[in-house]
Amino acid sequence: MTRIIADISVSLDGFVTGPDPGPTSGLGVGGDALHTWAFSDDPEDQRVLHDGTARSGAVVLGRRLFDIVDGPGGWDDEVGYGAAEVGTPAFIVVTSAPPETVRLTDLDWTFVTGGLSDAIAIARQRAEQESSERGADLDVVLMGGGATIGSAITAGLVDSLTLHLAPVVLGDGTPLFRGGPQRTLVQRSVTPTSTATHLMYDLGR
Question: Which domains does the chain have, with CATH numbers?
Answer without folding.
Answer: 4-202 (3.40.430.10)
